[in-house]
Amino acid sequence: MRISTHDHDDEAASLPRLKSGVWVMAYVRRCSGQGAFAAISRRGDDSAGAIFIECLHRSGTDLYGPQPGGGGRVFEKVMENATNIAVAERLEREARFDDDLWVVTVEDRDGRSFLTTDEHG
């Protein structure tokens, strides 16, 4: 379920998607610019690798992954307040399915994901 919809979803869906490597680099800069630590934990395919974001915070770890049918770069929270082991196991399963995936790790005490409303579904 999307918490916010983009008024021009059909228009946005027809635009070419930003390459994964470029999006990840911009996202890491966005997080760092807001005072959080962000690093690439697993480097995937530069052109089209799926992207997962693990957000480490006081209560555990939240994991965001591609939203099925989201079009473009839309993420959904797939785990919330999980243990590091549970997140690692989930990412290992995902990597067996898609070995080109990216993992970005964000450390923020407040648990902010730094995803925009258009990116968070």
Radius of gyration: 14 Å
In N-to-C order, the SSE pattern is: HHEEEEHE
DSSP summary, beta strand count:
5
Instruction: Give the N-to-C terminal Cα separation.
Output: 6 Å
Largest sheet: 5 strands, mixed
As laid out across the biggest beta sheet, the strand order is 1-5-2-3-4
If you had to describe this structure to a student in words, what would you say it looks like?
The chain has 121 residues and is α+β, with helices and mostly antiparallel strands. 28% of the residues lie in helices and 28% in strands. The protein contains 3 helices and 5 strands; from the N terminus they run ααββββαβ. Strands 1-5-2-3-4 form a 5-stranded mixed β-sheet, sandwiched between helices. β3 and β4 (75-82) form a beta hairpin. The longest helix is centred in the first third of the chain and has 14 residues, at 20-33. The radius of gyration is 14 Å and the shape is globular. 24% of the residues are buried.
List the helices and strands and how they pair.
Elements: H1 9-14, H2 20-33, E1 37-42, E2 51-57, E3 60-66, E4 75-82, H3 84-97, E5 102-107
Parallel strand pairs: 2-5
Antiparallel strand pairs: 1-5, 2-3, 3-4
